[in-house]
Amino acid sequence: MTQTELLKMIGSGAVRDLDLTGRELKNIDFKGCRVENVTFDECTLTECNFDGCGMERVSFRKAALRNCRFRRAKIAWSDFRYCEIERATFEEAEIRFCDLYRAMLTGIVIMRKARIGETSLYYAYFGEGVNIRRENIAGGRLLQQDLDAYRRFLIEWNTSGTGVRRNDRAEQSAWSPDAALHAGGHAQRRPDDDRHPAHGYLRLHPRQQDTQSVKPCSHCANT
């Protein structure tokens, strides 16, 4: 698809069923569009605007997002695994049933009034400028703290999400929900334990105690 064709589709108000893997997109304005079943894997998106978009089954796997905007976007069942997000705003966005495994958020990333629910933040890296707080997490608890909810999320990913999980060699992973649940000691965590699901360092603090953004532990920073 050429950029002219893409802009024409955006002008119609709906962008669906596209594979844009590996493209470089700059200053593309998706504002207010319905974006469904679109693959941006390994893309570089610079200063792109997704404000007010309804986004479902969108994959940004291994993509680089630079100065992109998602204000008041509704993002569901979307894949941000291994994504690099640098200087972005998710102000008032609703993020549900998404996977940010090993995503890296760096620079100033605004999360004011964003709501994150039923979303995996497993091994996600939050830099100094990311102002994520407990109030951004629906119910104040990470997905992996509710093992039943996490199991449902893992099972439903293949039908409601972006599809079968693949490894770094683009091969189908030898992966199962039960194996994922036991990785990093999920099965042994207490219901009242708000530590990082892998090794116990990430904590989300209440507003009155949270004067700085949540910091990643040294293990996450080096993996």
From TrEMBL:
List, alphabetically, the Pfam families matched. Answer: Pentapeptide_4
Q: Where is this region: Disordered?
A: 182-223
Q: Locate the compositionally biased regions of type Polar residues.
A: 209-223
Q: Which PANTHER family match?
A: BTB_POZ DOMAIN-CONTAINING PROTEIN KCTD9
Q: Mind telling me what this protein is named?
A: Pentapeptide repeat-containing protein
Q: Which organism is it from?
A: Alistipes finegoldii
